[in-house]
Design brief:
Layout: E1 2-3, H1 14-36, H2 39-45, H3 56-72, E2 75-82, E3 87-93, H4 107-121, E4 127-133, E5 137-144, H5 147-157, H6 166-177, E6 190-196, H7 206-215, E7 220-225, E8 231-233, E9 239-241, H8 246-256, E10 260-263, H9 266-281, E11 282-288, H10 290-312
Parallel strand pairs: 3-4, 3-6, 6-7, 7-10
Antiparallel strand pairs: 1-2, 2-11, 4-5, 8-9
Helix pairs in contact: 3-10, 4-5, 4-9, 6-7, 7-8
């Protein structure tokens, strides 16, 4: 919580001073009552006393005063608002190692399901594109707000085979994410989500492409899928270990200005994708909430007046 006019908050000091004045007045009133009548006589003369109800209306009014003072200071809250005209490109690995079953039911099936969950978590006005890659990269869906098109592209393109060309995939995603500058010379925001389960085996250096992405202000969020125990069976019948490469993916994220994640199972992968959906499609913006504090203060003031009228037949 921040304030546009914080100097008004100094008036809050008046509230404890008012409390001291009120307690002093109550003490004097009690002494005057005791001087007028002995305690035994006072009990018979006034058998019912208001107790805590005597102070409740004034307490509500004091809270109302605090709310009005805060409203004068023009409070501002940080809220998440959708990013207009944003573009997100999903770059998904479908190399042969994605058939490993250390992530149930398989790495590829988990990646496909998480991608669809990601689409559900992104606001409708955000454009999403898709790149699929193994030893070569393919742009399978240009950025669009049609979620059905992206889902169909992910289902049709993701078949496990071949090696891993991470750098080529990032280059294709970067070309897809870049858009012409709009009014004021500013480019619409863009980001890349890269999911891979292994080290790059062909093509250009992915870390170098990450440096280019940073210059273009396109952060890359990487997800390392799988565990060190992951294996696949090669065509000649041998078993080959296919551990993920979180070190390189971490460098890509760090160099581009994004963030690296790791997912050892399908549940974790879904959680990461949902978090990225809300992170990439919204931004924090300061919104003034003066009206809310003023309305709350008014309700408290009316509540205090209503209680006073009901219990004591006077406003305060």
């Amino acid at each position: 919580m921040t304030f546009a006019s914080p100097a008004f908050l100094a008036a809050l000091v008046l509230l404890p001073l008012g409390l001291v004045a009120y307690l002093t007045a109550e003490r004097r009133r009690r002494r005057a009552a005791e001087a007028f009548a002995a305690p035994a006589v006072a009990v018979s003369a006034v058998p019912r006393r208001p107790g805590w109800r005597r102070h409740a209306p004034l307490a509500l009014c004091a809270l109302a005063a605090a709310g009005l003072i805060i409203a004068l200071a023009r409070p501002q809250a940080s809220v998440a608002v959708p990013v207009e005209q944003a573009t997100i490109v999903l770059a998904t690995d479908h190399s042969g190692s994605m058939q490993a079953t250390d992530v149930r039911p398989s790495r590829l099936v988990a990646a496909r399901g998480a991608g669809e969950d990601f689409l559900d978590s992104v606001p409708d006005d955000v454009r999403v594109g898709a790149v699929a890659f193994n030893q070569r990269a393919r742009a399978v869906q240009s950025p669009t707000t049609d979620r059905g098109e992206v889902r169909r592209a992910l289902r049709d393109a993701l078949r496990p085979s071949g090696g891993t060309a991470t750098g080529e995939a990032l280059a294709a995603a970067l070309d897809m994410a870049r858009r012409p500058a709009g009014q004021g010379g500013r480019r619409p925001p863009a980001a890349i989500v890269l999911l891979s389960d292994g080290a790059s085996t062909s093509g250009r250096d992915p870390v170098g492409v990450a440096d280019q992405a940073r210059r273009l202000r396109v952060p890359i969020y990487t997800v390392a899928l799988g565990t060190s125990q992951g294996t696949i069976t090669t065509p000649d019948g041998t078993t080959e270990r296919v551990p993920p490469d979180p070190r390189t993916l971490g460098q890509i994220a760090q160099r581009s200005g994004g963030r690296a994640f790791a997912a050892a199972d399908a549940a974790r992968l879904g959680e990461v994708y949902q978090r990225l959906g809300s992170r990439l499609a919204t931004r924090q913006e300061r919104r003034e909430v003066t009206a809310a504090f003023a309305a709350g203060a008014l309700l408290l003031l009316l509540g205090g007046a209503a209680l006073s009228l009901r219990w004591f037949r006077r406003l305060l």
